[in-house]
Amino acid sequence: MASLSCSASDLAPLFSSNTANATAVANYLCTRFDTIANKLSDTTYAIDNTYLLFSAYLVFAMQLGFAMLCADLSFHIGFGLVTAGPAQLDFAGSGVVHMVGGIAGLWGAFIEGPRVGRFDQADRSVVLRGHSASLVVLGSFLLWFGWYGFNPGSFLTIAKRYGDGGSYYGQWSAIGRTAVTTTLAGCTSALTTLFSKRLLVGHWNVLDVCNGLLAGFAAITSGCSVVEPWAAIICGFVASWVLIGCNKLAEKLKYDDPLEAAQLHGGCGAWGVLFTGLFATTSYVNEVYPGQLGRPYGLFMGGGGKLLAAQIVQILVESRWVTATMGLLFYLLNKMKLLRVSRDDEVAGMDMTRHGGFAYAYHDEDDQSIKHAYMMRKIEPNIETPPANLSLPSVDV
């Protein structure tokens, strides 16, 4: 791009000849013009920061999808070659979906650092409450409904009979059982989290129920089609304590994850992968994965440790893969200053500084006490005020 320039010698003759300080005025205007031109030529200044952050989100989303796809394919192909046959079980993706996303979130939150005010000067944890518990509950119910498409919907067919079971037993039965195990694990985890947090902190919290519900769903996703309903209750109970324990550990390590992505999806997803290696039943495994005789099943169901070993290998392989891909991506985005808004934006709230108004205050335009402090304003170069004794002359046209 051609550079913009201003010449005081060319500008001065445009002013009236009777103006004593025409040269000074021309020099001042050219200095200001050059300052603005230099700023506009700087692409890091010219591109709006909001656009950069949204671009970083798009890059992250595409890279995460790539990481999930490659983690699933590479693990199945590589481990199948090592063991001379399929061994690992992750029916709907506790590992390849939830754990992969949780580990990606772990690196993102770790590299970005805690939110402003999350820990005080004595390094004590400060609870930053969300802005709308109602929306959290609504979102949790929507996810609950969607999980029935996620887990039972992972079957490719419905009208398929199993063996000699006649018309009363087939894939439709497995789909129904999958819906039951999903419900039991989620509800057990939700109730366990509710009462456990009541004993630990001394009060009830609906947000704990929502997170506990999703923790149970994330954990049961791996083995939802190959475990008994009673085992799903165990899965949900343990998932609740995995979530609580991971949150306690995160607080000790001064790790700030506002949505508990690493704790909920990463920790509970890993538990779900291990749970399948412990409780998968041989009859359900053979039904869901037909034509693969000798496929291992759960340790506690008499299947030995082969499946559990495969599940552990899956956790290790996927963890290292996501660390190598998403950890590097977040590091580069952070170095490019694309990962986080400024401290002023964070304190004021991006609804005001980037989006032009309060998100939840009605008639906020009438509240003058808070309007001026955080009103969105255009970012411009810091132009100095002209000297008081410098008069701007008229221009001859």
TrEMBL record:
One of its GO terms (molecular function) is ammonium channel activity. Belongs to the ammonia transporter channel (TC 1.A.11.2) family. GO terms for biological process: ammonium homeostasis. It comes from the Eukaryota. Residues 54-360 form the Ammonium transporter AmtB-like domain. It is found in: Membrane. Keywords: Ammonia transport, Membrane, Transmembrane, Transmembrane helix, Transport. It comes from Quercus lobata. The chain crosses the membrane at residues 51-79, 91-111, 132-150, 230-250, 262-285, 308-333. It is a multi-pass membrane protein. This is Ammonium transporter AmtB-like domain-containing protein. Its main location: membrane. The keyword Transmembrane helix applies. GO terms for cellular component: plasma membrane.
